[in-house]
Amino acid sequence: MPTKILIVTGDAAESLEVLYPYQRLREEGYDVHIAAPSRKTLRFVVHDFEPGYDTYTEKPGYTWPADLAFSEVDPGDYAALVIPGGRAPEYLRNDGELRKILKAFFDADKPVAQICHGPLLTAAIDSLRGRRVTAYPALEPDMQAAGASFQDAEAVVDGTLISARAWPDHPAWMREFLGVLRSKAPVS
């Protein structure tokens, strides 16, 4: 049975930040499941960087089915966790079931890959204190308030926590995550 990886997300997640790791990890031979607040078709968004804008723009993105609801997740079944960004983390951080899932991964020191606004979730369970992270640059004050040392870099590795700023950093982020993942949870 292949090693399982969990992606936690919801509506308004950044399309690329869900689907790139989903496909890349499957390509490596991992069994990847997407969990959301409920089993439904999720509606992702596309965040782009356009000249003349002070921040990113948002457009409708892909739709994709959630494999299971947060309430159905047994964290013990999964070797690692991926936390995409987009707007989803803003409201998902208040989900009690998701908070239990996140805590279980950190308590077990399993590999966690977070990107963009995803660190809002790990900050919400107080798992960033004393750690080095990166995130979407506008979140630097949030990361510092969560007790983390913010680094403006493509990918930051702190033990089993791997973070990146946004989808343009995917190659560095996945390279670092796969390095940790292969050592802690090789494909079976």
Automatic annotation (TrEMBL):
It holds the Pfam family DJ-1_PfpI. Gene3D superfamilies: 3.40.50.880. Residues 4-178 form the DJ-1/PfpI domain. InterPro entries: C56_PfpI-like, Class_I_gatase-like, DJ-1/PfpI. PANTHER family: DJ-1 PROTEIN, DJ-1_THIJ_PFPI FAMILY PROTEIN. NCBIfam families: PfpI. Belongs to the peptidase C56 family. This is DJ-1/PfpI family protein. It comes from Streptomyces actinomycinicus.
